[in-house]
Amino acid sequence: MKVEEFDYHLPISLIAQYPSPQRGETSLMILHRQTSVIEHRVFGDIAKCLNSADLLVMNNTRVLPARLIGKKETGGRIEMLLIPSWNGTKGEWRALIKGSGKVKRGTRIRFEQGFEGEVEEVKDGKGKVNFSYQGEVIDILQRIGHIPLPPYIKRGDELLDRERYQTVFGERDGSIAAPTAGLHFTHAFLHSLRENGVRTTTITLHIGIGTFAPVKASDIEDHTMETEWIMIPEETAREIEDTKARGGKVIAVGTTTTRALESFSNGNGGVRAGKGMTSLFIYPPYRFRVIDGLITNFHLPKSTLIMLASALAGKDLLMKAYQEAIRRKYRFYSYGDAMLIL
Q: Which of 124, 191, 289, 296 could form a disulfide with 265 if both were Cys (CB 3.0 to 4.6 A apart)?
């Protein structure tokens, strides 16, 4: 299958540069796979689509303020996006590096508050960095790091992004991008869903560059995802098994939750508990083993995310829905509107 089949033209004006004034006050498009019906609602209407047998599974990762701005000893500006390692190697940090002039091995960089680092290796803008800091690097990031907003948001990070580019249910620091489908949920809305019998549970997938790296191959099958770290709690595995036994739907909140659950499928509709790495790439005609529905945002053309959504909704229906969303001026990407695929 060709990557070009997942291309579309989006007017720049539809790329959301800021979140909605209030969390959750967003539009919702509902895709019904069996009938190919497309509905236009508001996000709160998701409650009308779920019942007491259903389960929402959410990714409880939190975004690290992983973007650092510093200076070389020569005075040149350096910008880094730090990518934590979750392979058991404590203290190892990869980075996307860009700056004025050439950045080479041995380049020393000075950041705020006396924080310093040295480039250990670098190639094609990717490298490894060693930091001369006695404590946890994550702690210093919380003080001097910037929220790593996606490049299509054409502004610097602001104070509001510290709150709005995080989900209200996030618990575990470790991602360099938000699980954006979760940004629509408020504490009050989650409480209302639970009051009506809808159950919720969580997994962890720390989002790295694999989730949003561009597909450079012309054929989908030639693309390889970078690995990302997953944890599935025992409680979540039990909740999913119970939901399936009761005839309920397992609804994944986001593409990262989907990849986590499908990566740990036990082959019987459920998942096995545990933790590990995944490089699962989901695209048509993938057969889903765990999830029955998906809450997601509107994604970039030719991205692995739009391919995953197409695998569930069907490519023709999804691409038709995107054209309708453009006509109706939905807001796209991370801070944009939502889609529910049932």
A: 289
